[in-house]
């Protein structure tokens, strides 16, 4: 398929009248000041004559201003000011001299008697000309500082985003082998005692790995996909702990927003391993999920062994919980709630409340 020819850029001439108008305004102000000055002395020259006296000087600055801006951008202050300040001082004197010469030539061409003498123009105009140079230069310094500051902010934000993505990728990569190792270890325990169940668990594990491979490189997945993966993981654990665990789902979802990939599995695994796997009597685990377009809330409760007395979520060294806590901080900062507490009636309660994430589904992506 051939690409469309590049669009030709047309010169934007509309700015020229606007630029001329900008430099005409101070000329009008100067002509008005001259009229007031002459009026205080009892003179009443025509305003058109005063405009012919005032406007040429400002139109000369309209020609010189781009040069001053270019110099200010090339030699910004305060960077290396000890070397650049003398350059600008010399440039300001040079610009003032050039301005004086051009004004004299223009006024002579307009046949304005009494105002074309070089000494008169120099005596009255050198200081304002130097001041005008520095006004333009300082305005350019300020503009460049603002532009560079915004560019640094954008670059810093980009670097922070890249670093956050790298950290999230590393955390997810850390979680996947942890999950795989634990599951393979559980299957290996049944290879000799119950090969049929071990084979069934291997099939379930293959489906889980297919989900992990499909989600590779995606930090965010739809909630329904995350729930499907968690349900398959629960089925595998039911087979492993046959008769020792009862796991139920309650899902109230008016939408399927995005959630961090593999965010539920470590929490369910923790409830199973610490609440059910270490007990001989059956353990009940309830997984409740409430989702809206704005937030997702997950509650996981078990009536198992409960938490150790010294348990602190912020200090746990368990790979699954520590990694989940770090991923939540990277995704949401302080905009989430994650806690694991002991239930009064025994067992453990996990609460995860987090903002919903916008996610692009595969069927919505452009081919």
Short description:
The protein is an alpha+beta fold and 367 residues long. 59% of the residues lie in helices and 13% in strands. It starts with 14 loop residues before the first helix and ends in a 12-residue tail after the last strand.
Please describe the structure with a list of short key phrases separated by commas or semicolons:
Heat Shock Protein 90, 7 strands, 367 residues, alpha+beta
Would you mind describing this structure in some detail?
With 367 residues, this protein is an alpha+beta fold. The protein has 2 domains: 15-156, no CATH class; 189-361, Heat Shock Protein 90, CATH 3.30.565. 59% of the residues lie in helices and 13% in strands. It has helices at 15-40, 47-74, 81-109, 118-188, 195-214, 223-240, 265-276, 319-332; strands at 220-222, 245-253, 258-260, 283-291, 295-302, 337-342, 348-355. The strands form 2 sheets. Strands 2-4-5-7-6 form a 5-stranded mixed β-sheet, with helices on one face. A two-stranded antiparallel ribbon has the order 1-3. Strand 6 (337-342) and strand 7 (348-355) form a beta hairpin. Helix 1 packs across helix 2. The longest helix has 71 residues, at 118-188. The radius of gyration is 38 Å and the shape is rod-shaped. The two termini are 15 Å apart. The relative contact order is 0.07. Mean pLDDT is 79; it is low at 1-9 and 362-367.
């Amino acid at each position: 398929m051939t690409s469309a020819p590049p669009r030709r850029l047309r010169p934007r001439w509309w700015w020229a009248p606007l630029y001329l108008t900008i430099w005409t305004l101070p000329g009008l102000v100067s002509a008005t000041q001259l009229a007031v000055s002459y009026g205080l002395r009892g003179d009443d020259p025509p305003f058109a004559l005063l405009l012919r006296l005032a406007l040429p000087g400002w139109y000369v600055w309209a020609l010189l201003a781009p040069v001053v801006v270019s110099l200010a951008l090339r030699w910004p202050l305060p960077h290396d000011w000890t070397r650049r300040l003398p350059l600008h001082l010399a440039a300001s004197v040079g610009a003032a001299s050039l301005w004086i010469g051009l004004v004299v030539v223009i006024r002579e061409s307009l046949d304005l008697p009494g105002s074309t003498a070089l000494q008169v123009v120099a005596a009255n105009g050198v200081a304002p000309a130097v001041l005008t140079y520095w006004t333009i230069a300082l305005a350019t310094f300020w503009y460049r500082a603002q532009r560079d500051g915004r560019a640094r902010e954008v670059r810093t934000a980009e670097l922070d985003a890249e670093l956050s993505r790298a950290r999230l990728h590393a955390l997810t990569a850390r979680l996947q082998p942890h999950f795989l190792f634990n599951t393979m270890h559980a299957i290996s325990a049944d290879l000799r005692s119950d090969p049929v169940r071990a084979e069934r668990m291997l099939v379930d594990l293959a489906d889980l790995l297919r989900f992990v491979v499909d989600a590779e490189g995606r930090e965010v997945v739809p909630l329904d996909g995350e729930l499907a993966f968690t349900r398959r993981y629960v089925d595998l654990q039911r087979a492993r702990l046959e008769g020792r665990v009862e796991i139920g789902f309650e899902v109230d979802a008016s939408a399927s927003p995005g959630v961090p990939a593999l965010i539920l599995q470590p929490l369910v695994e923790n409830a199973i391993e610490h609440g059910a796997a270490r007990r001989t009597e059956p353990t009940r685990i309830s997984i409740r999920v409430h989702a809206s377009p704005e937030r997702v809330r997950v509650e996981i409760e078990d009536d198992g062994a409960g938490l150790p007395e010294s348990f602190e979520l912020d200090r746990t060294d368990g790979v699954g919980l520590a990694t989940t806590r770090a991923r939540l901080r990277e995704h949401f900062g302080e905009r989430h709630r994650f806690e694991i507490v002991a239930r009064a009636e025994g067992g453990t309660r996990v609460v995860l409340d987090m903002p919903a994430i916008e996610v692009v589904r595969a069927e919505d992506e452009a081919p």
